[in-house]
Automatic annotation (TrEMBL):
Residues 35-274 form the PBP domain. The keyword Ribonucleoprotein does not apply. SUPFAM superfamilies: Periplasmic binding protein-like II. This is Phosphate ABC transporter substrate-binding protein. It comes from Flavobacterium pectinovorum. Keywords: Signal.
């Protein structure tokens, strides 16, 4: 009887093994670098540029479907480390500790930089002063009161903008008073537009490519020019100042792929880093990692079209 039980158990094991292998094979056949469906978890502060990339990618490759899931930076990284997300877009590279964790799991993340973004500081339109020193913001983050700032407004306590400013100010925690947070960048913009004296901290892409319902609200805010810690001049979160490396609150954007095979994540990363993707970045107001090329037609003579 025991012998028959072992034989039966072996048959069940072989059946399950073959079934699982067949399922994995079928899934891999359904997805390639240009077809299939995946979900991409995205840092909420850079969602507009990712939405643009996805729209053009899906419009070019009709068999590809990409779902964009916006979350705070802390949530995005946590999902990636716990293998709940295979492809993510973030505003920083992986840390040494995070890379070591992937190495222990025998996972080799593919990290592709594709744009330079900017953190913008905004104020209410009634504020005539459109200049601000970065040191003033850092002092406020360190708990030092300043008459120019009634409060700092962030999108989310776990966002990349909060992490960025905390690192600049070299503080572990944000002040208990004078700092406000919401859930989205749009909410930050609305709050600043309605409250004088508040300084909002948002991803510049939300200002350069606003949704239709935010166009009139953005007209009620100023985008501040910022003086860095080592410069006496003020610079804007514009493509020009980003290209020159002058704007003090610049950061690079990365797409990180942990699929482990040649799937849609690899195809989308290649698209973003390629010529079309870089042109989309350029049009969005951000700075592409690689400047798209231009084709010039040289003529030996001037042709007069008018007779």
């Amino acid at each position: 009887m025991l012998k028959y039980s072992r034989v039966f158990g072996l048959i069940v094991f072989v059946f399950l093994f073959v079934t699982c292998n067949q399922k994995s094979k079928n899934e891999s056949e359904k997805e390639t670098i240009l077809k299939g469906s995946i979900a991409i978890t995205v840092d909420e502060t850079v969602k507009p540029i990712v939405d643009d990339q996805v729209a053009v990618f899906e419009g070019t490759y009709y068999d590809a479907k990409i779902a964009v899931k916006p979350k705070s930076e802390a949530e995005v990284i946590n999902d990636l480390l716990n293998q709940k997300a295979k492809v993510v877009v973030v505003t920083r590279d992986l840390t040494t500790e995070e890379k070591n964790r992937f190495e222990k799991s025998k996972i080799n993340p593919r990290v592709t930089p594709f744009a330079t973004d900017a953190i913008a500081l905004i104020s209410n339109k009634s504020n005539n002063d459109t200049l601000i020193a970065l040191k003033t913001v850092i002092d406020f983050m360190q708990g030092k009161a300043d008459p120019k700032i009634k409060g700092l407004v962030f999108d989310n306590p776990n966002s990349s903008t909060v992490r960025y400013m905390k690192e600049l100010a070299k503080v572990k925690n944000i002040p208990a008073t004078g700092v406000f947070s919401f859930k989205t960048n749009d909410e930050v913009i609305k709050f600043v537009a309605e409250n004088n004296g508040m300084i909002g901290v948002v991803g510049v892409n939300w200002l350069s490519q606003p949704s239709p319902n935010m166009v009139d609200i953005i007209k009620k805010i100023n985008i501040l020019s910022v003086k860095g810690l080592t410069d006496d001049k003020y610079y804007d979160p514009s493509q020009t100042d980003l290209t020159l490396g002058k704007y003090p609150l610049a950061r690079d954007l990365y797409i990180i792929n942990c699929q482990g095979y040649s799937g849609l994540g690899m195809g989308f990363a290649s698209f973003i880093a390629g010529d079309i993707g870089q042109r989309i970045v350029l049009k969005s107001g951000l700075m592409p990692i690689r400047t798209p090329g231009r084709k010039l037609k040289i003529r030996s003579q001037i042709i007069n079209d008018k007779e």
